[in-house]
Amino acid sequence: MQTPDGSPLIARFRRARTDEQLAVLEGLHAVKHALRFSAVIDVLAAHDPEAVASLAARLAPDIAVRLAAMITPVARPIFDALSPTPPETGLIAIAARPSGGIDQLARLGRSAPIVLLESPTHSGNIGAAIRVAAAAGAAAVVTTGSVDPWNPGALRGSAGLHFALPVWSTAAIDFPGRTLVALDPAGDELAPASIPADALIAFGSERAGLSHDLLARADLRVRIPMEPGVSSLNLATAVAVVLYAWRFRQ
Fold first, then answer.
1. In this predicted model, what pLDDT tens digit does every residue of 163-177 receive, in sequence order?
2. Which residues of the chain register pLDDT less than 50?
3. Residue 125: Cβ within 10 Å count
4. Is there a contact between 87 and 59 (Cβ–Cβ < 8 Å)?
5. Helix/strand/coil for 78
6. Rounded Cα gap, residues 35 and 234, in angstroms
7. Which end is more exposed in the chain, N or C (fewer Cβ atoms within 10 Å of the end residue's Cβ)?
8. Cα angle vertex 137, ends 136, 140, to 5°?
9. C-alpha span between 182 and 68 (Å, rounded)
10. Which residues contact 145 (CB under 8 A, 6 or more apart)?
């Protein structure tokens, strides 16, 4: 990617992509949701502030004035260098990730399930699952494995809804007091009553499914009913089906 030399802003965005305390938000929708859920924005850049302000006034009037006041105008070549895939809506930001850690999940109430993604490999799927979890009212999303759930691709997939609920990565799956519910093709057919409010609902990776260890530890195993010949669903779709089965029981 060709970039103008010597731009502090370009260097700042490049560092932010690998900084575990920061999040890069690409596009109006990601910034919109981050602001709605009290994200702390470090820098907000646009190559055409008037166009962004007009779009925000139409699509997100609740945050439009605040957003417009925060924009730092940059030249188009600089803007295009801030991301490998510059967002079409012409807006990009750096925000602070929420403070705290995985231990805070133990202090959550048990009126809504936690979503556990075991070793997911696709950032877009992680983000889409977080978006669904936020919409359905899940208590949190936790991932295991090597993929950072806060990477820019996941944030793009969630449209910034990482800020709507706790999102953490952990090496150890230990949630005392939670009912571990595993998605398993050999499990009982999913029904609204299958998912207790205190559930830790485990979804396997896109290719390998859940590990034998996690399946062995499960308190319940459930499967999503599907037509013959259909072997699986996209990860985010599976999360949506199970969470809304829980939500519709209320």
1. 999 999 988 887 888
2. 1-6
3. 24
4. no
5. helix
6. 29
7. N
8. 115
9. 45
10. 118, 119, 120, 121, 169, 205
